[in-house]
Amino acid sequence: MGVENFKAAFSHGREADEGFYAFENQMSDETCEFREIVLNLQMLSKQIEFVLHNYAMDDQKAFDFFKRLELLLMRLQSMGAGYDESKPLCRFIWEMFTGFSWAEGYRGYDPIEKMIEDI
Fold it and tell me: Which of 9, 40, 104, 110 has the greatest number of CB atoms lying within 10 Å of its CB?
């Protein structure tokens, strides 16, 4: 699902069981879905670590991006389920899958996918 489709599918909803609110509420408890997301973050973090340590990256901007992403993923893994505890995780997922940036707004592309393509 592309960023525009994800945004269209999940941006609507005003109630706790609608749109992205339903997802956020699911992350308030240590559900199997929550554990699966954390496991996937761990795997992604390990892959980024492997690439950063085993491949020469000439583009400093790309290296810095992936290093910040690796550190963010490590931080997100340490946060548990809970209403406030899961907010950073939910914010990261929204930003990643909708192409949203607090500085730039909606960019219309997945920034991680774009950075991978650029290297």
Answer: 110
